[in-house]
Structures are given as structure tokens and as C-alpha cells.
Amino acid sequence: MKDLESRVRAGEPDAIRETIARLDRGELRVAEKIDGAWTVHAWVKEAILGFFRISQMETIEVGPFEFHDKIPLKRNLAAAGVRVVPPGTVRYGAFVERGAIIMPGYVNIGAWVGAGSMVDTWATVGSCAQIGRGVHLSGGVGIGGVLEPASARPVIIEDGAFIGSRCIVVEGVIVEEEAVLGANVVLTASTPILDVTGPEEVRYVGRVPARSVVVPGVRPKRFPAGEYGMPCALIIGKRQASTDQKVSLNAALRDFGVSV
User: Fold this and answer.
1) Cα dihedral across residues 81, 146, 104, 57: positive or negative
2) CA 217, CA 204: separation in Å to the nearest integer?
3) Roughly what angle, to the nearest 10 degrees, separates helices 13-25 and 2-9?
4) Burial letters 201-221, b for 16+ CB under 10 A, else e
5) Does any domain span residue 22?
6) What are the CA-CA distances from residue 161 to residues 60, 112, 138, 181, 218 (Å)?
7) Domain count of the chain?
8) Is 9 within the bounds of a domain?
9) What DSSP letter does each residue of 68-109 carry, written as one string?
10) Contact 130, 153 (CB under 8 A)
11) How far, in Å, CA of 158 to CA of 117, rounded?
């Protein structure tokens, strides 16, 4: 693998194409969890950027639809055991595990979507984003992508998380295992994520702790012109650990009155 990395860094077209093919087959990932911590493989993102440079624009016809792009669509979905509902789109260089479902949403190059996950209608999975197993991205969810700088961490949604309708998660935020985001939660690298379940708030930035139940919030901030509400996210409880994740999720939504 080190040889392939060095060849990619040297800009060799064959090495770049081989790296993208391995991404497409799931043999490589832009980011992976190693010893409990997420590691970004910057050279793999460099290969994606290189692939854009060496690829030519071409017309792609899919039945009555026509596209004009540098990156082809993913192929052999039936053999991969992946369901893609028209006009859902998975770009070549993204990997979707067997059993995942892509409704009329979009999965960009470099992304990874785990088994049993659903990318619901008009949800988008940006370039290099990592979506775990058993995740539900509800309608209209926006998972941001990142290619530059190559060292930047992509958005990571860990196993079993539930992302409610119209949520936006960008700038390398990590949503840890089995967390629940209620509808319209917006998370950026600077969004305050406030645990308000105790006598004093606990502040997180850039990550949602495992099994947290999160809703949109506002907090006052004073400006020269006056005091205004600034967006934040509120952790209002914990989803209980359970071997039956559907029961656990339903209980969390019922107990905390979360809109999804």
C-alpha cells in the first residue's frame, strides 16, 4: 500500500486510477477507525483530486436522461446487493455496502455507506463522508463533503445513528454511535453542542456523543446592535442502549418528543 501511496503522491495516472477503483470496491476508505480513533488517509483524497485532473468530460446516457461529467456512475449495483431507487445517484469511487438503500438521493465520490443504512429522498452524502452501518439519513438531510485540504476530516456518522429530516452536518463533525438528531439540527465545526440534562451545561464542539438525543436550539448573544439568538444544538437526553435498535430509537423519540 505504501508503494501505491507514493505513486499517487507522485501524480502517476495509473496509481490514481487504481486507488479510485479500490475506493469503488470498498478496499480503501478515506477515513477509518483505528484503535478507537478516526484516521484520515490524506493520500486517498489526493488521488480523488488527481482523478478529476486526469479525467475528461464525457456524455453519459441513462435511458432518457443525459449527464455531462468527468466521473461516471457506479455500476453493477445488483451484484453488489445495493438498492438504488430512481433517480438516486451513486458516483463511481463511492462504496455502498450490501443491503444499503439509496432512495432518490445522492452519494458522491469517496463516500462510504454501511450495510443496512438508508439515504432517504433528497438526502445527500458529500464527497468522502463516512456513513456507518444501520444509519438512517432522513429526507432532505445534507451531509457535507470535503476534498481540500487533503488532511481535513470528513463528516462521520457512526453506526446506528438517526439523522432527522432537513438536518445539515458539515465541516468534519462526528456524530457518534446511535445518536439521534431531531429535525432541522445544523452542525458545523463551530456549532455549540450543549448537554443541558444536568444542573450545568456541558459544551461539545465538533462531535455529538454516543446515544445523545439532540434538538435545535438558540442561545442569546449580545452584539453592538442588541441581543440576538444564535443557533446551537441541545442534548436533551440519552438514547438507551438496546439490542433491539428500533425499539430503542422509538423510545427515544417518544420519551423526548423529538421531531424527525
Assistant:
1) negative
2) 14
3) 130
4) eeeeeebbbbbbbbbbbeeee
5) no
6) 35, 15, 11, 8, 23
7) 1
8) no
9) EESSPBP--HHHHT-EE-TT-EEBTT-EE-TT-EE-S-EE-T
10) no
11) 11
User: Which residues lie below 8 Å from residue 76, measured CB to CB, with a gap of 6+?
Assistant: none
User: How many degrees, rounded to 5, is the angle at CA 172 between CA 169 and CA 178?
Assistant: 60
The whole model's pTM is what? 0.94
Closest CA to 204 of 167, 233, 230: 233
* Residue 188 belongs to domain spanning: 71-256
CATH number at residue 129: 2.160.10.10
Asked if the structure places residue 243 within a domain, the reply is: yes
Cell of 72: 461516471
Q: What is the Cα–Cα distance from 229 to 218, expressed in whole angstroms?
A: 5
C-alpha cell at 228: 440576538
pLDDT band for position 242 (50/70/90)?
A: low
Looking at the predicted structure, is the pLDDT value of residue 149 above 60?
A: yes
Tell me the C-alpha distance between 57 and 69, whole Å.
5
Among 128-137, 155-164, 251-260, name the one with the lowest average pLDDT.
251-260
Instruction: Report the relative pairing of strands 180-181 and 162-163 from DSSP bridges.
Output: parallel
Query: What single letter denotes the amino acid at residue 30?
Result: V
Q: What's the N-to-C CA distance of the chain in angstroms?
A: 42
**Which amino acid is located at 128 in the chain?**
C
Structural domain contains residue 20: no
